[in-house]
Amino acid sequence: MAESCDGRVRNGWVYFIGEGFMRPVKIGWAADTARRLFELQVASPAQLLLLAQQAGTVGDERALHHWFGRRIRHPRPMDAPLARPLTPDKEKAPPPRAGR
C-alpha cells in the first residue's frame, strides 16, 4: 500500500521492467503495472517486458533502489564482466603499439 497525495492509502505493486534479464531494468511502483508498462513502452524503441512484480509500497521500491544502487556503484570484482579472456591467445593479440 502507498499513500497518495491526498493521504489515502492505496494498494500497489513494485515492478521490474526491462528488455529482458539484462541491464538496464526499471524498478518502480504502480497501482496498475500493465498501464505502466504501456506508458514506458511508448517511449522505448525496444520491446519491454514485465519481468517481475510483487505487492508493495513506495517505501519498498525505494529500499530496492537503495539495495541495488549500492551494488551497482560499488560492485564486487567477481560480479564484473570480463573485458578479455583470462588466458589471452598471444597469437591473435594485436602487436603492441610503438612507443609503449
Question: Structural class of the helix and strand makeup?
Answer: alpha+beta
Distance between the termini: 60 Å
- Share of residues in strands: 15-25%
Low-confidence segments, ≥5 residues, pLDDT <50?
81-93
The major beta sheet can be summarized as:
3 strands, antiparallel
Topology pattern, helix = H, strand = E = EEEEHEH
Order of adjacent strands in the largest pleated sheet: 4-3-5
Radius of gyration: 21 Å
Individual helix count: 2
Mean pLDDT, to the nearest integer, reads 75
Shape: flat
Number of strands: 5
Helix content: 25-40%
Count of all domains: 1
Description:
This protein has 100 residues and is α+β, with helices and mostly antiparallel strands. It has one domain. 26% of the residues lie in helices and 23% in strands. It contains two helices and five strands. The strands form two sheets. Strands 4-3-5 form a three-stranded antiparallel β-sheet, sandwiched between helices. The chain has a two-stranded antiparallel sheet with strand order 1-2. The N and C termini lie far apart (60 Å). 6% of the residues are buried. About 13% of the residues have low confidence.
